[in-house]
Amino acid sequence: GTTVPGFTLNGTSPGPLITVTQGELLEVRLRNENITDGTTLHWHGLEVPNGVDGVAGVTQDAVLPGEDYVYRFVPTHAGTFWYHSHQVSDPQVTGGLLGPLVVLPASGPTTDAELTAVIHTYAGRRTLNAQLHHPAAPGSSVRIRMINTDPGPMPVWVAGADYRVLAIDGRDLTGPTPVRERGLTLTAGARADLEVIVPEGGARVQVPGAGIVVGEGGPEGTPVPADRVDLLSYGTPAPLGFDPEHAARVFDYRIGRRFGLLDGRPGLWWTINGRIYPDVPMFMVREGEIVRMRISNDSGDVHPMHLHGHHITVLSRDGVPATGSPWHVDSLNVEDGETYEVAFVADNPGVWMDHCHNLRHAREGLMTHLMYDGITTPFLMSRHTGNRPE
Ligand code: C2O
Ligand code: CU
Questions:
Q1: 42 in ligand 1 pocket by Cβ < 6 Å?
Q2: pTM recorded for the entire structure
Q3: How confident is the model at residue 390 (pLDDT cuts 50, 70, 90)?
Q4: How far from chain centre, in Å, is Cα 111?
């Protein structure tokens, strides 16, 4: 009911749903009509070649008004993803320069129907961008792809039916069991694919203040469930595909906060291993190495940590080992006081951002890079989260 200033793609925000089948070549032409700061598109959660990662100042220059830029890649994994600007991303992403991207499995769908829902807050108003009433016959299965494009964690839940968490961050979970009257915390930047078997009378997929009806109806106005699904123990174990005990590198990513100078400006800034951006560690790896990282947070705030170009596998949280399905993520909710042990295989050479997806925090220095040995970049980062024309 209100109009707010913002950014659009093809005239809308969120931008168009991009659907592609796993293994197909995707080509997207970005044309900047009139964003004076320039813009880019980053493919959040997709393991694209580094050159099309869309990070201004790292993998390309920002695309200025009147300019074009073509992204071309083959999605390797089926799942739910999204795209957004990576030039002065706060305020561009906050202002709506984003959209959903779905990679369909080459083997065909596993549910009878599906829908995609983008959660985004515009000028203080939470919105759920989806087909808000999805007619479906009782007994049929529906996959609901939830995408949290906001800077903070978002509870999602289903009222009137059990649900299963089929996938997180574009990676299927093994052995997902039905969940009842429990919510799921969707990390900033993260995606969850929920499966609902439509009951007689219907169900409602909820975020605080908004919902999607599947089937006939479903209970309205249910409160946020106090209980949450813990992905550390959800589902059944399966091989990780690599052995984290054979790590060639072990890194610490300690998040803190202190007074200091960021780019000459005094303030209370985020720190990584005690240091303020840009004087922060760069994590150096070689292709093929197994990497372990210990992400700890002592900063007084939650940080949704996001590594580009890779999925990380959660090994433990606060010393409690993961016992459920392999939990592969690109966006990890690290609460104040928490410590996560994660691991990944360095299998995608390049220079990759590793930052907080509360993009204001990134601008305030909570960002660094994962860098492969022998790789350089001709692009230059300037202040904040972008490059030219500043
Ligand atoms: Cu979704 Cu570096 O971003
Ligand atoms: Cu943060």
A1: yes
A2: 0.97
A3: very low
A4: 23
Residue 386 has pLDDT above 90, yes or no: no
The alpha-helical segments, DSSP class H, found in 179-266 are none
pLDDT range class, residue 262, cuts 50, 70, 90: confident
| Ligand 1 mean position, distance from CA 181 (Å) | 31
DSSP lists the bridge partners of residue 283 as 370
Nearest to 159 by CA among 196, 134, 131, 127: 196
40-51 confidence digits (pLDDT tens): 999 999 999 999
292 in Cβ contact with 283 (< 8 Å): no
Quick check: 118 and 189 in contact, CB under 8 A?
A: no
Long-range contacts formed by 21-24: CB under 8 A, 24+ apart: 21/103, 21/104, 21/105, 21/106, 22/75, 22/76, 22/77, 22/78, 22/103, 22/104, 22/105, 22/106, 23/74, 23/75, 23/76, 23/106, 24/74, 24/75
pLDDT digits (tens, 9 = 90+) for 287-303: 999 999 999 999 999 99
134 close to ligand 1 (CB < 6 Angstrom): no
Closest residue by Cα to atom 2, ligand 1, is 353
